[in-house]
Specification:
By secondary structure, the chain is mainly α. The protein has a domain at 39-64. It has 3 helices and no strands. The radius of gyration is 20 Å and the shape is rod-shaped.
């Protein structure tokens, strides 16, 4: 349930940034004599990589919190 929240935030961020970055890339690349076509596979790879990194980060932080000694945290507060 925790990772779902973060994945939804990543999907929302990609839904906002992908069209903007596509337009910016097309505008910037149109000024060059030789340019590449920016395809959807570039954005899918980036989204996949970010989702994998998000999953690893959330999993690591969840495991770190689960393995922590609650008595130590209560003593310091």
């Amino acid at each position: 349930m925790l990772t779902r929240k973060y994945f939804m935030l990543v999907f929302i961020a990609f839904a906002i940034i992908v069209p903007l970055s596509y337009l910016a890339a097309q505008l910037w690349l149109s000024h060059f004599a030789y340019h590449i076509n920016v395809g959807p596979w570039m954005y899918l790879k980036a989204c996949g990589l970010i989702l994998i990194l998000t999953g690893f980060t959330v999993s690591f932080q969840s495991l770190k919190a689960a393995w922590a000694n609650p008595a130590y945290n209560l003593r310091n507060e």
